[in-house]
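Long-time lurker, first post. I've been practising inverse folding by hand and with some scripts of my own, and I keep getting stuck on stretches where the structure tokens seem ambiguous. Below is the full token string for one chain I'm working on. Before anyone asks, I'm not after the true native sequence, just a reasonable design that respects the backbone. If someone could post their per-position residues I'd love to compare against what I wrote down in my notebook.
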């Protein structure tokens, strides 16, 4: 498929290492993928679902000890520990290679090596970066065929270039004790062993598009961010684009595919999804920040997805989708998960493949069960989704889950202050996540598990990007959909109603809305958030726009502690932002 010398040499080295019985190059053709699906059905690796109800859909169950990303076994292997920083696990590259090669050696014996050329971003786009993942899992091939652009066209676009990311995946024995996800940013290399699940093995996603790409972005002057991208079309047909970062459990996929409230729909507003998880952003010829979604599909969490919470996501899963670790309804050979509807199947297998009818109180689907669905299935996928030139970003939005501290929305004072707001991003834990309620977890720019280098250097890179963008920089905001009342109930209705807040954000970007200056930034005047058609009083709105001085004084003390973790590397501009916030709070 290619004469690229660097590709052929690396493949030869991997073959010698893992010693496969057979080698198959993935050309991207439907015939080859169909043959692989048939082969995986034959071995039981995947199950073909009801093709009338769910055409092109399959079910896969992972090993029960392999159901999520493993942050404690994820490593950044830079020459020095300092480069990886205090928030990443680190191993010296030589030690990591030796350990991984020892685990991988001979592990494909009796297995087939699949070689997947893939592109992150539309093939040929100035944003696109290419990779090759070698794997012994058909499940990985089929998922990569949904999540990325794969096949011969990628090798053609790569030509003889050596600029591509090497990815070796070995299932081995799915041994938790020998599971490692290692990144070698200085060698453009990723090695993943002893897992067959999601973010650990679909190497284009978190490993390449965030960890390796963030490192490359700093080196090359662009940004790889853990952000959704959405477009808001007004009744005049003008579309404004927002990129937004949230820690997990903040409704990121729901926001990416938001359904406008009826009053907005009637006026002609539309929301377009460009991406639900990752944004690559570059300064364009016009000096503005442009973004693409480097992925080609959604690896979404199934539980809780339903026709009310996210109809666009659910519709996206109705064809050509792979479901992982959900309930198998044996009556009609379809799938089910908690929160899909109130009718758990009576004749079913749970995510472990055991007989299950829900009567024993256990969950049928794993809480981290997933769908891998093609982006093109999404009813609100943006017409610009496949555009190689990307979309211009007007606003960057950070968010978190805070019961009292953060108001519904505020705007940062300028780019440096916006970077500060991103660096202090935090969510309070819910009982479901940890058992401990209200513990504040800092997750700067939602990149804590995904930044491929020292977090403080990453902040410095953000500040440098702002200097380059100058007055063309997107405006930076923070939102909090999760303010609680005294009974612990959410005050703001969230979901589609969040468009009301996004409208204020866009109006601010266009200089069309006023704001009130507070110590933490600019907060809307309650009258400027449109409540038309919503049963929500302006007084309640005023309540969730309030900034509690005492809580923020406490917050600054916690931020100071958090920054200490990064030592001298915290950029002076951010330390200054903290001091200025403290003095504004006095
Ligand atoms: O557990 C996994 O492997 C998936 S994690 C994931 C999947 C899709 C989008 N985002 C995430 C995440 O952890 O941020
Ligand atoms: Mn994510």
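-- Answer (accepted) --
I ran through it position by position. Result:
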């Amino acid at each position: 498929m290619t004469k690229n010398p660097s590709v052929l040499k690396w493949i030869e080295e991997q073959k010698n290492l893992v010693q496969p019985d057979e080698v198959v190059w993935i050309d991207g053709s439907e015939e080859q993928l169909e043959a692989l699906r048939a082969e995986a059905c034959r071995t039981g690796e995947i199950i073909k679902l009801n093709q009338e109800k769910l055409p092109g859909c399959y079910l896969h169950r992972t090993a029960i000890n392999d159901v999520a990303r493993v942050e404690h076994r994820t490593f950044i292997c830079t020459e020095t520990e300092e480069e990886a920083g205090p928030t990443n696990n680190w191993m010296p590259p030589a030690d990591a290679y030796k350990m991984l090669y020892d685990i991988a050696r001979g592990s494909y014996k009796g297995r087939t090596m699949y070689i997947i050329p893939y592109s992150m971003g539309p093939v040929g786009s100035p944003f696109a970066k290419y990779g090759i993942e070698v794997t012994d899992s058909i499940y990985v091939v089929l998922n990569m065929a949904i999540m990325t652009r794969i096949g011969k066209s990628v090798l053609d676009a790569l030509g003889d270039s050596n600029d591509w990311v090497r990815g070796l995946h070995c299932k081995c024995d799915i041994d938790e004790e020998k599971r490692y996800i290692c990144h070698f940013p200085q060698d453009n290399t990723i090695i993943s062993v002893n897992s067959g699940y999601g973010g650990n093995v679909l190497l284009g996603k978190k490993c390449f598009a965030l960890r390796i790409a963030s490192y490359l972005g700093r080196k090359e002057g662009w940004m790889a961010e853990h952000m959704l991208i959405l477009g808001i079309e007004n009744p005049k047909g003008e579309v404004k684009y927002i990129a937004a970062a949230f820690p997990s459990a903040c409704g990121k996929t729901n926001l990416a595919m938001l359904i406008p409230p009826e009053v907005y729909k009637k006026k002609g507003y539309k929301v377009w999804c460009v991406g639900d998880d990752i944004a690559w952003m570059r300064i364009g010829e016009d000096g503005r920040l442009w973004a693409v979604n480097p992925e080609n599909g959604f690896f979404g969490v199934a539980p809780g997805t339903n026709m009310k919470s996210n109809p666009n996501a659910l519709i996206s899963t109705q064809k050509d989708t792979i479901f992982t670790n959900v309930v198998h309804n044996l009556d009609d050979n379809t799938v089910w998960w908690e929160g899909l509807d109130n009718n758990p199947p009576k004749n079913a297998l749970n995510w472990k493949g055991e007989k299950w009818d829900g009567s024993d109180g256990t969950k049928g689907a794993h809480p981290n069960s997933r769908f891998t669905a093609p982006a093109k299935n999404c009813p609100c996928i943006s017409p610009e989704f496949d555009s190689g030139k990307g979309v211009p970003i007007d606003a960057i939005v950070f968010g978190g889950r805070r019961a009292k501290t953060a108001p519904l929305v505020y705007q940062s004072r300028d780019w440096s202050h916006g970077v500060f707001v991103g660096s202090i991003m935090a969510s309070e834990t819910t009982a479901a996540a940890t058992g401990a309620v209200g513990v504040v977890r800092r997750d700067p720019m939602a990149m804590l598990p995904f930044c491929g280098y020292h977090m403080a250097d990453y902040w410095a890179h953000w500040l440098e990007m702002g200097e380059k963008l100058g007055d063309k920089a997107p405006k930076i905001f923070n939102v909090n959909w999760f303010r609680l009342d005294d009974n612990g109930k959410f005050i703001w209705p969230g979901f589609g109603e969040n468009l009301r807040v996004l409208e204020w954000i866009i109006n601010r970007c266009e200089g069309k809305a006023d704001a009130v200056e507070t110590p933490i930034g600019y907060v809307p005047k309650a009258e400027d958030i449109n409540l038309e058609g919503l049963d929500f009083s302006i007084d309640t709105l005023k309540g969730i726009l309030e900034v509690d001085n005492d809580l923020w004084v406490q917050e600054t003390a916690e931020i100071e502690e958090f920054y200490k973790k990064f030592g001298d590397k915290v950029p002076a501009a951010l330390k200054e932002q903290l001091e200025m916030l403290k003095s504004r709070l006095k």
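A couple of notes from the structure itself: The CA atoms of residues 336 and 379 lie 21 Å apart. The first strand starts at residue 22 and ends at 25. Happy to go over any region you disagree with.
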